[in-house]
# Entry
Amino acid sequence: MATTTAPDRTRQQIDRLANSNPEWTVWLALWDTTLDAAADPVWSVAVDDATLAPSLATGAPRLTGATVPVKGRDAAAWVRRLVGVAAKRGAGAGGSGAAFGEAGDRLDPVALIEASINQDAARLDALASTAGIAPDALAALAQFAAAPLLHAFGRAIAPGVANDWDEGFCPVCGAWPAMTERRGLERARRLRCGRCGGDWGNAVVRCPFCAVAGHDRLGSLVPEADREARQVETCAACRGYLKSLTTLRAWAATEVALADLSTVELDLAAIERDYARPETPAVALGLRLTEPEADPAPGRAGVLRRR
# Structure
């Protein structure tokens, strides 16, 4: 029997969502394009030559203060490709993707990717103003622009993250979790990052956003259908919420964002009850993208170099 790979499963999910939700045409087309780009070796090369801090304070994600060499021409080619898909699909669907058009030529692609990874909303707004693009539209595009590099970091770093990581945010890129997996027959609770695919454990009775613990402040919203399979974890202290889904296997990194999208009805249920996802980043990464130096001599090894 042929094995279904993670990219195959992701594309099958994209096809199913596209057929049942035509209003998501632009988003799904961009994610499909991003799936292709994530396999491009240029991002793995950038990760191999990245410089990470030799030691970090307790609770700091691995990309804090990282310096990452990314060729400007590679970043430009990738962002132009994204803008083209957004403009074409958005125009055809009457969606926000049509807002890009020629404005994409005024974007600084390296700055866009860097600002997105750092979750720097002010810088993204400034880039949108310079390019003449609606801030919300550019913020959405920026998530896709950063995804190939973030996923490359996730593949390289996540396996080495300590099992005792106990923060509410991603140990790789510092993002708040997109959702919780209750995985396997034992329903092990795993938080998942929708940006890099990070996968880490968290105490069952604790809010990942404000660290409040105890059943008196934490609750859940349970839909009439699929009561065991899908829930919303809520916190009365910070009014945050997190979707919680059961799954027999771990989602691949590329599947997390699709699982998040396909359960939007849970978001609506939480928002109607005045719960919300955090509006501010968990940490300030301070990551920098730089133009690489000249090609090194043959045979030089450099996997995630440390300062």
Notes: DSSP finds nine helices and ten strands in the chain.
